[in-house]
Amino acid sequence: MKGSRVERVGVEVHPTAIIAPGACLEKRVTVGPYTVVGDKVTVRCGTRIGSHVVIEGEVEVGEDCWISHHTVIGAPPQHLTYGSEGTRVRIGDHTVVREFSNIHRGTVEGGGITIVGSRNYVMAYAHIAHDCLLGDDVVLATQAALAGHVVVGKHAVIGGMAGIHQFVRIGEYAFIGACSAVLQDIPPYVKVQGNRAKPYGLNVVGLRRHGFPEETVRKLKQAYRTIFLSAINTSQALTKIEEELLPCLEVEHFVKFIRSSERGIAK
User: Fold this and answer.
1) Which helix (H) or strand (E) holds 250?
2) Three-class secondary structure of residue 208 per DSSP
3) Which among 131, 137, 153, 159 is annotated as catalytic?
4) Distances (CA, A) of 111 to 90, 91, 114, 149, 151
5) Does 208-259 carry CATH code 1.20.1180.10?
6) Which of 143, 139, 158, 128 minimizes the C-alpha distance to 59?
7) Average pLDDT of 213-226?
8) Hey, do 12-149 and 208-259 end up sharing a CATH topology, with the first three levels equal?
9) In the predicted model, what is the mean pLDDT of residues 75-104?
10) Mean pLDDT throughout 85-92?
11) Catalytic residue from among 32, 38, 57, 148
């Protein structure tokens, strides 16, 4: 504790925890037994850290988070070219990371940072690899695994034991069913399932829970049918959607996501 960057007023650290001198723990942070917090770690106000946690490297954990027992945050990426460069992890406010999950820091080639947004819920045994970028309000169910460079949009839900291939993008409000293997991009608002993951309609339940107007849901359903169920190709389908369903912000986002896909979308 001696020689720390800040005076740890109002911080509760178990006597068996090891806190490096350079670690920054803000007020109301609690640290459980046998936890190790490294020299370049910053933990913001009100965050709770359980027992046997390891947080190492350059890591920032936001306010009022819950880092549960036996999690590892900021470990070196599982990448053959990594050479101990000073890459980072950043976790937003009010995020929960449950037991035995791990979040690896970024690589220089991938931008140098792994980001987990605010109000995310990362369930037990989940894996978030190097250079992943997660938006806000994302749910990763138990044993879900994200390979490197995965991008996940806000409010997406990834089911238990689902595996997401590297460089895949998951759109906003998408729903990935349990045990799915996702090798291509999943457009916003779509639900998929299977190995390999295939679309099974619009995530209507999720959209209605989040207050999307019925007219918006109707237009998104029509856009979905045009892309996935019509006989025309994807380019023709996108043109048809733009001609018939715009202006609609959500439909526009749906179209832009598909047009910008480098891996192609799961169909």
Assistant:
1) helix 249-259
2) helix
3) 131
4) 13, 16, 8, 9, 13
5) yes
6) 128
7) 97
8) no
9) 96
10) 96
11) 148
User: Domain 12-149 belongs to what topology?
Assistant: UDP N-Acetylglucosamine Acyltransferase; domain 1 (2.160.10)
- The owner of tokens 């970028």 is 133
> Angle of helix 214-228 relative to helix 234-245, nearest 10 degrees?
160
Given the structure tokens 């947004």, which residue do they identify? 117
- 131 flagged as catalytic: yes
Residue (of 191, 199, 151) closest to 175 by Cα position: 191
| Token pair recorded at residue 60 | 């920032």
The yes-or-no answer on residue 148 being catalytic is yes
β pairing state of 190-193 and 198-202: antiparallel
127 pLDDT above the threshold of 90: yes
Among the listed residues 40, 54, 53, the one whose alpha carbon sits nearest the alpha carbon of residue 5: 40
Q: Annotated catalytic, 135?
A: no
Options 52, 70, 94, 130, the catalytic residue? 130
Q: Distance between terminal CA atoms of the chain?
A: 55
Q: Considering the entire predicted model, what is its pTM? A: 0.94
What are the residue ranges spanned by the domains of the chain?
Answer: 12-149, 208-259
